[in-house]
Amino acid sequence: MSCTNHQADSCFEEFELPEQEIVMPEFQAILDSANVKGAILIYNLQEDQYYSNDFNWADKGQLPASTFKIPNSIIALETGVVENDSTVFYWDGEKRGNKNWEQDLIFKDALQYSCVPCYQQVAREIGVEQMRSYLDLFNYGSIKVDTSNIDMFWLEGESRISQFQQIDFLLDFQQSNLSISKRTEDIMKRMMIIDEQEDYKISGKTGWSYNNEKDNGWFVGFIESKEKFYFFATNIEPTEQLDINSFAKTRIDVTYQALKELKIIN
User: At how many degrees (to 10) do helices 69-79 and 182-191 cross?
Assistant: First the structure.
């Protein structure tokens, strides 16, 4: 049965339209058990439905932190600042606070290891004007970038992006709606794979900022499972009960638990 405009009222009485936003107390229980606060947001592309424990939190802007390495990588490839996923970033021998960063890294590994100095170099070479132009094109959050903060704006300051906006951006990227080259898209999709199993593939990026004496953690990405796509954006903060040394792992763990709760993965 199809509805015309004149039939709409009677049709809505006969057929219940699905809710687009579904509150998941199960997600809240996952976060409570992990001693963190925040929101898990999952989008089912096929059903056009969002699932979350807290839609208000999911709509609140946060510093993008290292999730910004996704658009930063795309812009680097599009502008030619980085040639491909095998481009080498040479370590200058300086201590970097992370052993994984204290070595020469190819671009793919710089993303996987979340090498801040590598991406600061990339951002400086992209420059303010090109960075702004591409972020406007991507409709990526509310990013404040100028000459004074070109290599730090995603880690501190006034730049903000919400969980909904993260998913919007990832959806446009995955669905080839970013107006970037097929070559860049293919390279990025290879670089972003973090978990590939027989029945699903997960692509994404974590992030962690410390601003105004507050830790804030991200895990964003998308899942291909049984030829269907799901998008996720988790944003959490530790409670006093959490051992901060486990915070990095917790961002990923709570997301996987939520995906299992929805039976997206096993």
Answer: 140
Rounded alpha-carbon distances, angstroms, from residue 233 to 50, 137, 138, 147, 161: 11, 21, 17, 29, 11
Number of C-beta neighbours around residue 109 at 10 A: 18
pLDDT digits (tens, 9 = 90+) for 183-215: 999 999 999 999 999 999 999 999 999 988 999
Cα torsion 108, 175, 168, 28: sign: negative
Q: In the predicted model, is pLDDT for residue 13 greater than 60?
A: no
User: CB–CB of 42/260 below 8 Å?
Assistant: no
- The residues, any chain, with a CB within 8 Å of residue 165's CB and separated by 6 or more, are 61, 140, 141
Alpha-carbon gap, residue 202 to 197, rounded angstroms: 9
Host H or E run for residue 205: strand 200-211
Residue 173: Cβ-neighbour burial (10 angstroms; 0-12, 13-18, 19+)? buried
Active site residues: 66
Cβ proximity of 209 and 155 under 8 Å:
yes
Domain residue limits, the chain:
20-261
Torsion angles phi and psi, residue 220, rounded to 5: -130, 150
| Phi, psi (degrees; rounded to nearest 5) at 205 | -155, 140
Q: With the CA atoms of 159, 176, 194 and 89 taken in that order, what torsion angle do they form, in degrees rounded to the nearest 10?
A: -70
Mean pLDDT of 115-122: 97
Q: Where are the alpha helices (DSSP H) in 34-181?
A: 55-58, 69-79, 107-112, 116-126, 128-138, 163-174
Q: What is the CATH number of domain 20-261?
A: 3.40.710.10
Give dist(CA 35, CA 250) in Å, integer.
Answer: 9
> How far apart (Å, rounded) are the C-alpha atoms in residues 167 and 12?
29
